[in-house]
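Memo to structure team: turn this sequence into structure tokens by end of day. - J.P.
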Amino acid sequence: MNNIKLAYKTEFGKCYNGKIEEALKSMVLIGKKNKVNLIFTSPPFPLSRKKKYGNLNGEAYTNWLANICRSLSKLLTADGSLVIEIGNAWEPSMPVMSSLPLKTLLAILEKSKLYLCQQFIWYNSAKLPTPAQWVNVERIRVKDSFTIIWWMSKTTKPKADNSKILVEYSSSMKKLLKTKEYNSGKRPSEHVIGKKSFLKDNGGAIPSNVLIGANTESSSKYITYCKKNNIEIHPARMPKFIPEFFIKFLTDPGELIIDPFSGSNTTGEVAEKLKRNWLSIEANSLYIDGSKGRFHQIKK
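Reply from structure team:
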């Protein structure tokens, strides 16, 4: 397809300019069938009003994203994963949440014959109070501060290793490991906790499915590059710690990651740093121009 063009490439990846619908019909993705280890993306959210980076609503949105995911799932390896971030949606002019994200999830699972391995939440600690009318003006709701991340796969046991994403032990756990004093035994839940279960130093704690962090960067090399070259900054950038979490958790160096709605290409930047091969697709050429600032070297 002539509508899909290579915008740039790096040591580990390639960025293409075009719509995902067109890319799925081109050799850009046809040749990747059963070869992709992780598809990680944040598509346009189902919003109550249109924004300049594009979005649909209602049944049209559900069908659009479910059909795309069905095609994308065919690219995955047998143990590969599809991870999608979706924001909450509200009904227009009403203080009522929309069930559209949930309907979309069910449609994706059904059409693509995927399993929902786990649901994650990204709590944005710096999120502004929204929806403004109901939170700030009428004060009948609290601010909506999280988005949902769905981890799906063709199999119930996709490739995953949580030992790659351990977090620092709490101060109390560090003290416990040092003193070796632990009140083992039966709990009210009827679980029996042995000393060996908690007194082994595994190098860190297993993280939860709640990811906490803000997207308030103001002086990154991406933003600096955009300002220097008078390029529009993407309005909905994802913080790097989110793709980093899933890339480390679900893939190994040298494996292939695809982001079909790459925006400012945060996924590509993180994949490059972690020495994973990557392929990104973005319809807006201005966002692609800005994303070049994420990489030290762009190959012709």
